[in-house]
């Protein structure tokens, strides 16, 4: 099996040093970077696409859970949380972390975590399933209101602001399209990011794109749609790709197949 490309993230220099030293004794781990905060971690994950991230939870600014929420689904690495606090364990496994290790770290416990990572990689290679960060299987359809009902209401009232209907168990949320910053695909679901909250909707990316306002929403990746009005910064990357900064922290990769969308956006400004 090929080596597992690994990023380590912790805001304490000593903790990084200890983790690096112990992981260097595990043959199939290839450490490709270190980060001291969540924002750095997001940037490195987007750029280098590691297989695995050892991620501290409590960090200033964006914490470990915040890092996960701000990543596109198809660049999401496997996560092993490292922390000095027990109370985050349930939350860690709710976002499908592979493992949760309490500090101080010991080599035997790290080796066990790496074994679990290997098992997860082999399992995913075998069945081809997407890694989805939300427990979306718990979502059930509610037929009391449909997208067709919403479209009909909008047609009857042209002044009605365009919205997206989201069902979560018995609850229905009508999310204003103008508030949606970006969207990424997760199998038969989409994750809509708005105001620091991620909403899960049963839909393909193609179906959602047909529902969204085409003047402001554009596909920039096979699994990602962005609201052009939230773009704060465009950074060229290698091989014709771009990074888009949306808001203060969110960063989205534009694949070269969709680079003309961003070029046209810059021309039109």
Explain how this protein is built.
The protein has 269 residues and is α/β, with parallel strands linked by helices. It contains 8 helices and 15 strands. The protein has 2 domains: 4-127, Rossmann fold (3-Layer(aba) Sandwich); 137-268, LytTr DNA-binding domain (OB fold (Dihydrolipoamide Acetyltransferase, E2P), Beta Barrel), CATH 2.40.50. The longest helix has 21 residues, at 107-127. Residues 128-143 have low confidence and may be disordered.
Please sum up the structure shown.
With about 270 residues, the protein is α/β, with parallel strands linked by helices. The protein has 8 helices and 15 strands.
Q: Count the DSSP helices.
A: 8
Overall shape: globular
Strand residues, percent: 25-35%
Q: What does the radius of gyration come to?
A: 20 Å
Spatial arrangement of strands, main beta sheet: 2-1-3-4-5
Q: In total, how many domains does the architecture comprise?
A: 2
Keywords:
single chain; alpha/beta; Rossmann fold; 2 domains; 5-stranded parallel beta sheet; 5-stranded antiparallel beta sheet; 30% strand; globular
Write the layout of secondary structure elements.
Layout: E1 4-9, H1 13-23, E2 29-35, H2 38-48, E3 52-56, H3 64-69, E4 78-83, H4 89-94, E5 99-102, H5 107-127, H6 147-156, E6 163-168, E7 171-176, E8 182-186, E9 189-194, E10 197-202, H7 205-211, E11 217-221, E12 224-227, E13 231-236, E14 242-246, E15 250-254, H8 259-268
Parallel strand pairs: 1-2, 1-3, 3-4, 4-5
Antiparallel strand pairs: 6-7, 8-9, 8-12, 9-10, 11-12, 13-14, 14-15
